[in-house]
Amino acid sequence: MSQRSALVLPVATLALTLLAAWLVYGTVSGEALLGFDGYPLIAASAFHSIADPLAVFGDELMGGRYPDGRFYRPIVHLTFGVDHALGGLDPAQYARTDIALAALTSTILGLLASALAGARGWTAAAVTACAAATYLLHPAQLEVVPYAPRRADALALLFTVAATLAVVRDARPLWTALLALCALLSKESGVVVVPVTFAAALCRSDAKGLRAALRSAAGPAAGVATGMVLRTIVLGGLGGHAESGAPGTGSIGNITLSLWEALAAGSPGGGALLGLLAVAALALLGARGTGQGRATARLVLLWAGSAVAITSFSGRFHDWYALGLVAPLAVLGGVAAGGARRAAGVPIGLAILGLVVTGHLGSPQRDTLGVAQAVSADQSSRFVALMESTTPGTTATFEPWVFAVSTAPGAPPVFVHAPYSLSALGELILGPDVEVICVAVRPPLPPPDLIHVQLIPGPPPAATLAPR
Q1: Distance between CA atoms of 314 and 348, rounded to whole angstroms?
Q2: How big is the chain by its Cα radius of gyration, in Å?
Q3: Listed residue (266, 239, 404) closest to 322, CA to CA
Q4: Contacts for 245-250 with beta carbons within 8 Å, 24 or more apart?
Q5: Which one of 125, 154, 302, 361 is at 20 to 30 Å from 72 when CA atoms are compared?
Q6: Ramachandran bin of 343, using left for φ above 0, alpha for ψ from -120 to 50, beta for the remaining angles
């Protein structure tokens, strides 16, 4: 196969996933920044000199603005800095980046599934499309793509998937180490790149046993070790949330159940049908009679188990953490559809994709996100106007302040702005010489270089809730 023909599949897949991602997520992204951490990340990441892109590697997440823990994610800062340099505070610029990240990860996942299936020609195209679509259209993406701050999860997964494909293709250890380092520097969940790449090394057609797999995983392990050293130096320790650490058996069980429920959200039959399909796909891989099929099944199981373990270790669960399980599910469906027993595998792969698409179409988040975009845009524009008319050394009142929006019973709320979010927006508008502190109680008269803003909760303005 010529080098030109080898590029056809990845280029075509990327083009199609970019188009699909924009059509699917462009309608619920780009009018406003959602999530508490958007403006704090911009304030901490903005480039003011030529040295600032490198300076982010010495900064704590959000410059210490995050009130609930200490973290080190310089790759996230770097992407926010680039977005700010290109588009300032325009939410559309951040949306373009997040949509592109989803498309790029989908493409690499599709290529990984094709490589693991050993597919060629039209079969390779079908496997790639099945895996890429399963990842791109999963309803968990509605909890990630429209929220710029949650790109930490998307970035960590992107580099994990890229490192895994690099190992399968026997890339140089330096490249796999750099990709693994970027995964960890995007988010702590990137540490799963070590066991995942080890399992991926056993899937190669030329796999030569445990020692060879360990050598292949040495690059990612070195990258993660380097990242842990940097993190410890910058934070003065491992950081994390106060509750982070090894949980009890009950916590692991609860988080596993929560992750599975989020993975299967909206799917017909709930988690039971998706679980049956996953088990059938794993059984099909194990019954192929080839070591590579069984090794791929082990990879999927280890990948999913690692995602559960790192979430359990964090001590917290959020719906968007299910994205870590979507990747191995996409690989499983794609490889099952493209294996030697395609007569049985194709229906399984298509059924998994069908459940994912059905869950996406039935998700109440699409409607909520549309409303939340309008509420957030209204709130940020009113707050900017307030800051531009407020003199430092005075106290202002901001009403109504909307913390979160939900438009359907049982639907997860869409978070808009926390007090520290608006404080960061105030600093971005007024500059570094004026500090803005937003609180929910009446504050005392501030000093001359500070503005106090009393936030008064209230329902979203009626105009923002009109049908869209």
Answers
A1: 33
A2: 23
A3: 266
A4: 245/313, 245/315, 246/313, 247/312, 247/313, 247/315
A5: 302
A6: alpha
